[in-house]
Amino acid sequence: MKRLEERLLRYISYDTQSDENSTTFPSTEKQLKLLGDLKKEMEQLGLTEVNMDKYGYVTGTIPASKGYEGKPVIGFISHVDTSPDMSGANVHPQIIEQYDGGDIKLNDSLMMTTEEFPELSFFKGHKLVTTDGTTLLGADDKAGVTAIMTMAEELLQNESIKHGKIRIGFTPDEEIGRGVDFFDVKAFGADFAYTVDGGMEGELEYENFNAASAKLFIQGRNIHPGSAKGKMINALQVACDLHAMLPVGMRPELTEHYEGFYHLIHLSGSVEKAEMAYIIRDHSRELFEEKKALIEAAVAYLNKKLGKAVISLELRDQYYNMREKVEPHPEVIELAESAMKEANVVPLIKPIRGGTDGARLSFMGLPCPNLFTGGMNFHGKYEYCSLTTLEKCFHTLLNLARLWGER
């Protein structure tokens, strides 16, 4: 566990926040610092074919054990960026050597309570890393980077674990949906891969949301309210009217499991001009298309009612449900389940209420389900990571390497 702890604490000290408003790739220069240092570390560990391309993708190879060169090539992938939702700079992690199952004090004014976060009960007795309540932690997905790098170190030092060729890869900009925009699947050269980007112990995910973004720009007409009748178009009121046309029950806070939603993530403006942004999600491709059609219909209705094109809509698909690409290869899931059980982990197969790089990679020809890390409460000040679970993740990856080598 010591190697895992030291690596995780080192990696989370890097500020790698991505920026959804950037027009560059990666979206922030600071991500390249950690990516460059990972390349150096991979070379020092003895990986071969280590490369950092012009987009910042870092890849490398753990050569096959002697006599195992013809086995399937397996990849392990994690992203280095942290969410734009909260600062990832100057992270001050706190270590709980043996969690007692109670409320956790993050700082003098902030508690993480078992009432608000009941899943904490699972981690009683675990060694935890938490924030100090002022930043996110960065376990999403530096916990995954940690597990992969420690697996690589172990396989290169311990020749008793026999395995085929293994490729590892680290990507930027996953948190803003651009993580594999330029990822060269053919050059990566894996037959199958796993993103190591999940949370709860045992998570094994090969179903995710279909995802789209919707940006709306509303051009109003500001007239003095004393003489506004028949003349004013209040852009903020138009925004409220549009939001009211979407199903009330289809919001993140009111949905679970396979239920999709519309999530209003931005609203700003004035009487004269306003902007809105939604993310649209559903596991069902049919319901996903219906949700997109509904917001298009709402825009068309309001524009017709107002007698002019007051609202303009930018609707963009982001990724799709990887299930259709993974299910034809059941061995990818079966071996992951076996690897978990050997690490004393109970597999928890469930749909992701989100997405990973693996979703897009699956549609790019690389079937790529997602594995747990032990990181929890991603994207905010309540984020924490169980080092106890992260160690089980590490052993799961070792087991996967061996099991694929035995095929």
pLDDT averaged residue by residue: 96
What is the percentage of strand-forming residues?
15-25%
Give the termini separation.
29 Å
Spatial strand order of the main sheet: 1-2-8-3-9-16-10-15
| β-strand number | 18
Helix % is: 25-40%
Report the biggest beta sheet as strand number plus sense, adding barrel if it closes. 8 strands, mixed
Order of helical and strand elements:
HHEEEEEEEHEHEEEHEEHEHHEHEEEH
Question: Tell me, what's the shape?
Answer: globular
Total number of helical segments? Answer: 10
Based on CA atoms alone, the radius of gyration comes out at: 23 Å
The SS-based structural class is alpha+beta
Low-confidence regions: none
Function: Cleaves the N-terminal amino acid of tripeptides.
Subcellular location: Cytoplasm
Keywords: Aminopeptidase, Cytoplasm, Hydrolase, Metal-binding, Metalloprotease, Protease, Zinc
Catalytic activity: Release of the N-terminal residue from a tripeptide
Structural commentary:
The chain has 407 residues and is of the alpha+beta class. The protein has 10 helices and 18 strands. The strands form 4 sheets. An 8-stranded mixed sheet has the order 1-2-8-3-9-16-10-15, with helices on one face. A 4-stranded antiparallel sheet has the order 4-7-18-17. Strands 12-13-11-14 form a 4-stranded antiparallel sheet, covered by helices on one side. Strand 5 and strand 6 form a beta hairpin. Helix 1 crosses helix 3, helix 3 packs across helix 10 and helix 8 crosses helix 10. The chain is globular. The two termini are 29 Å apart. The model has no long low-confidence stretch (mean pLDDT 96).
